Amino acid sequence: MEKRERRAGPRLGAMKIKLSHAFVWCLDQDEALRFYQDALGFEVRTDAPMESMRWLTVGPPDQPDVEIGLLEPVPGASEEDAEAVRRMVAKGVLGSLLFRTDDVQAAFERVRTAGADIIQEPTEMPYGVIDCAFRDPSGNHVRIGQELDPASGS
Q1: pTM of this prediction?
Q2: How far apart are CA 128 and CA 59, in angstroms?
Q3: Which fold has domain 21-147?
């Protein structure tokens, strides 16, 4: 395997960059909110009306600086464009959310009990995790993984 050369570029030094927000489209914000609260245990970060939309974000309780926006398709777009986005969302092809947990079996049972559309039961993957996959109520692809313990082989 050939080693790639690193490009010379500006050094960031002490500057830090952290994820603050990620967004998924949802077809019904109230339904999405119930799912992310009940099935995943997330808490509401922001729920605010705006001019042409509702700014709704949730996040894991132990990551208070991370917000996941649950947005309805394309505020201000033409109805034709908004409908195209809705169709893509429902197919689950506009992105994914991936989460880590310390108990993938319990997380899987919680999402299954909540009625999620299961894509994959917990499965050991060749890249060092056991993960499961499902679709949220809008069709977005969501995975939850647990790192394998290399010392125990599981």
Answers
A1: 0.82
A2: 25
A3: 2,3-Dihydroxybiphenyl 1,2-Dioxygenase; domain 1 (3.10.180)
